[in-house]
Amino acid sequence: MLKDLFISLSQNQFLNSAAKKYGLKMGAQSVVAGTNIEETIRSIKELNAHGISCTVDNLGEFVFKKEEATEAKEQILNVIEAIHENQVDAHISLKPTQLGLDIDYHFCLNNVREIVHRANNYGIFVNLDMEDYGHLNPSFDLLDELSREYDNVGTVIQAYFLRAEDDIQKYKNFRLRIVKGAYKESEEVAYQDKKAIDANMINLIEWHLLNGKFTSIATHDHNIINHVKEFVKRNDIPNDKFEFQMLYGFRKEMQLQLASEGYNFCTYVPFGKDWYGYFMRRLAERPQNLNLVAKQVFNKKTNTVIGVAAGAFILGRLTKKKSK
Ligand SMILES: Cc1cc2nc3c(=O)[nH]c(=O)nc-3n(C[C@H](O)[C@H](O)[C@H](O)COP(=O)(O)OP(=O)(O)OC[C@H]3O[C@@H](n4cnc5c(N)ncnc54)[C@H](O)[C@@H]3O)c2cc1C
């Protein structure tokens, strides 16, 4: 129930625009690297100093106007320039909807192409993050078109989708990130049960490690991580064929530990003013992250506007009967 609640909060446009005006609040600063590029480069340098590479995500939700998509594209181009100028070990993650996928496919393709082209000039990889089921096919279409011109592009396979096995086979020659999947999906298209999702994730990881190009195993789940460690050892899979990925601010000690054990490790570094939807999805995955919120709400008086708005919404939903 809490998962549904936070997913619906993440889709609330009013709270999303309200949050943008107030900077990082409610504990979001623990999981979002900064609101601007300078702060983000500082965070990347700190992680690089521990042997951890980064993938940078310019946060953004609800992009329905061309000007907003163009602004997001410019910001991502600026990030690419900053990565190059500062010579940090980082690449780009982007969400096609932020670049206009909901406005016009070809407009979005041109935006993403410009980003991939600029990144390619500097040898920087670009990952197309995967969003909800409705965006899956057009996102793969983007990948198909871009990969005809560039090889510095890859994507994500979400293990909760029933079609994930077909997709991973089709895209085996790409650098792929394998995740469980973060959105609410129907049982017609996605496994609902955690055990089934975990089992599928393991199958997909093993298959891609044995048959694919480069595998990014993106999870905070120690059971899956331990399983992968065993699997690569048993099958003599070298460390340069895969990496572990986690989100910025999560399981920090485990991130450092894996890097110090000699595994390639990459931290997903989200930044920007549009942090609200991302933060709500993290709360949906792990309501214990509410600790972050509680600490902030009780420690600081300044969080009131967003805190009260979200709190009222949460309470309202909690007191209602469970909806379908
Ligand atoms: C780098 C990265 C990129 C991603 N990109 C995408 C994407 O493009 N599209 C998409 O749909 N989703 C993406 N996701 C989100 C992903 O789909 C999952 O929703 C998210 O990672 C939660 O699942 P999990 O695998 O981490 O494990 P969970 O199933 O959330 O957790 C499994 C177990 O791990 C332990 N655990 C988890 N978190 C913690 C913690 N913080 N502290 C202590 N123990 C913990 C707990 O025991 C928990 O029961 C991404 C995730 C990562 C890490």
TrEMBL record:
- Needed co-factor(s): FAD
- Name the keywords, alphabetized: FAD, Flavoprotein, Nucleotide-binding, Oxidoreductase, Proline metabolism
List each copy of the Proline dehydrogenase domain by range. 41-291
Pathway assignment reads: Amino-acid degradation; L-proline degradation into L-glutamate; L-glutamate from L-proline: step 1/2
SUPFAM superfamilies recorded for this chain? FAD-linked oxidoreductase
- From which residue to which does any coiled coil extend? none
Q: Name one GO molecular function term.
A: oxidoreductase activity
Give EC number(s), comma-separated: 1.5.5.2
> Catalyzes what?
L-proline + a quinone = (S)-1-pyrroline-5-carboxylate + a quinol + H(+)
Which PANTHER family did the record assign? PROLINE DEHYDROGENASE 1, MITOCHONDRIAL, PROLINE OXIDASE
List the protein's name. proline dehydrogenase
Organism encoding this protein: Cytobacillus eiseniae
User: What's the source species' lineage?
Assistant: Bacteria, Bacillati, Bacillota, Bacilli, Bacillales
